[in-house]
Amino acid sequence: MSDQDTHGFGPVDLNLLRTFLAVHRLGSFTAAARRLSLSQSTVTTQIRALEKRLGRELFERRAHGVAPLPPADELATQLSAPLDRLAAITGEEPSDTVAPVYLAGPAEFLSEVGLKVLAPLVEQGVRLRVAVGLTEPLLEELRAGRHDLVVATRRPRGRTLHAELLGDEEFVLVAAPVWAERLKGQELHTTLEGLPLITYAEDLPIVRRYWRHVFDRRLHAEAAITFPDLRGVLTAVLAGAGWSVLPSYLCRTALASGALRLLHRPEDPPINPSFLVQRPGSSLNPHVTIVRERLLAAAKNW
Hints:
Layout: H1 14-26, H2 29-36, H3 40-54, E1 59-61, E2 66-68, H4 70-90, E3 101-105, H5 107-118, E4 128-132, H6 135-143, E5 149-152, E6 162-175, H7 177-182, H8 188-191, E7 197-199, H9 205-215, E8 223-226, H10 230-238, E9 243-247, H11 248-257, E10 261-262, E11 271-278, H12 286-299
Parallel strand pairs: 3-4, 3-5, 7-8
Antiparallel strand pairs: 1-2, 5-11, 6-9, 6-10, 6-11
Helix pairs in contact: 1-2, 1-3, 1-4, 2-3
């Protein structure tokens, strides 16, 4: 933080910065107060003092908690690593309760796979705070200290985040049995383009990738239904609305029961690697390590 960033003279009180980072990570004055063993009024006073010192608002106050404004995200990015290192050196532990683990990633994966693997950890005292979203914004929030772990669909650039390969997500071309029977003996890559397509987004990102990788051609089709959650796409396909390309983990049960059919078995199916990404300093929470190890161990069987 430079002199130009502050109003007044002298260094900013380190306690204000610690309190700010707790509020930013927990999204609540109340939760930060509990974590830091302070009264909520003290946390409120410290945040107001920091905002006055910086000459800008850091949080948008809401009915339930607070939301960081852009200056808060920028400040958190600067503070996360050095304050976490300082806490490790000094052995600080501001509460008798281990902090929750903040995990983020794709809604479909965390719902269908992640929570099934992690739910048993609750008996060990692990508390989870799960957020969902797209990889790019989640990685930015990870850098700003809002998450401990992110399941990402690409490896983050640079060396500020630690990424480990979680697994390879295979994509499969599927439809309900009624469509599979109609398509027998037909040339798939041309016939399907004229049939109802169910997809995640208007630009057909997953389906277009499948077409390029498997059929080595450009897809010429428009979606009959778009739904911004692959579980919704699966529901529509199961109901017989049309065909789609989906991650294999999402279709495993329906394929095994016969409710869904594979339309094609390519020798080289398209895959998308996923990564478990950790922010610097989050290993200070022992439960982050437990969650990380459980996800990596379970990934071997996905």
